[in-house]
Please model this.
Amino acid sequence: MVVRPVRQVIFLLPALALLLAACAPAAAPSPTAAPAKPAATAAPAKPAEKPAATAAPAKPAPTAAAKAEEKPATGEPYKIGAIFDITGGGSSLGVPERDTIKMLEAEVNARGGIKGPDGKLHPVQVVLYDNQSQESQSVLVAKRLIEEDKVPVILGATQSGTTLAMVDTIQKAQVPLISAAASIRIVEPVAEHKWVFKTPQSDVLIHSVLVEYLKAKGLTRVAWMSVNNAFGDSGRDEFQKAAPAAGIQIVANERFGAEDKDMSAQLTKIRGTDANALIIWAIPPAASVATKNAADLGIKIPVFQSHGIGNQDFITLAGPAANGVVFPVGKLLVADSLADSDAQKKVLLDYTAAYQKAYGKGPTTFGGHAWDCFWIAVRAMEKAGPNPSAIRDQLEQIKDFVGITGVFNFSPQDHNGLDRRAVTMVKIVDGKWKATD
Model:
């Protein structure tokens, strides 16, 4: 506690007395009328208020580039069923088809999926089965895809026989099928194959080019031999229709089994004819065996094959006997030699580069058929979503689709959609594919 000095208190006493006097109450005055209240005056103006808050400046609208970077929402996965001949007699065709589909599935999912009609990105889920190159197995796995996996579209199968075996199942289930096999019977008559489409050139289209080539070369006496399955039988039937119209005579007609190891007996008969050209209609390994047998028997006439030999396996298995073989096929094998103006060239080279990067080797025409199947299904699903009926309807409307096999223009009357541009004549020279005139 702080104590102040006494002299400061003495000086303060007079001031304190005066203060107490002022505070004493005064005598009450006589009552008088209450004075008039002073006229009201305007209330003093309030101090100026703060200026009203202004709206925050609008954010600039996103640029086109920013919008492009915005990704759509993610939706439920879109399923795609696939059946290929991965093991068994058709494996040389089915394996590159499987590998192509896996590569494309990864490619689409890496960028978010398929953009469906709902504006969302839907990851792709490919449900793939091996039919073991067996027709009965094709039917079983087709039913599994439809009934258990609930896929809205199926790709495959690899061979004509394994595809034709499941056409009835497809038609009854009303789930669209896009086949990677050749026979015209797969899609015709269209009225009876409403739900079936295919990507390889049909044997009808292939034969139209082949007989044109034979006629131009003066090769009008032909010995024919084909594998005794759906592919070989369809090819034989269609050639028998096309040849007479081109002035070509079939002087021998032989068949062999897909697993036969020696066709010398059939070729010996052919050697005894006056044929000036030999046509072998099969796929490897049978096509390679027949080619080697012909060379071993000293048959010197030109040898022609089907578009079923468009992979390196044929050359590897046939060895030097493959040299000189000529066949009608798509442009993939000779893509480097195409003119820059060719509509397919960039697509073919891009696929070749992607496959080479993924698997360390070049693609085959069969992998190309699967490439077409996949992207055609994707295009339909972009507009139809996972609805089987809507997918089928969209498939019939696909126009000017530049694929590996050709430029596709589907319609209600044409479920193959290819024309003459999809076929070129190729010759094997020193173990390499070469375009021929």
Summary: Confidence is low (pLDDT under 50) at residues 1-57.
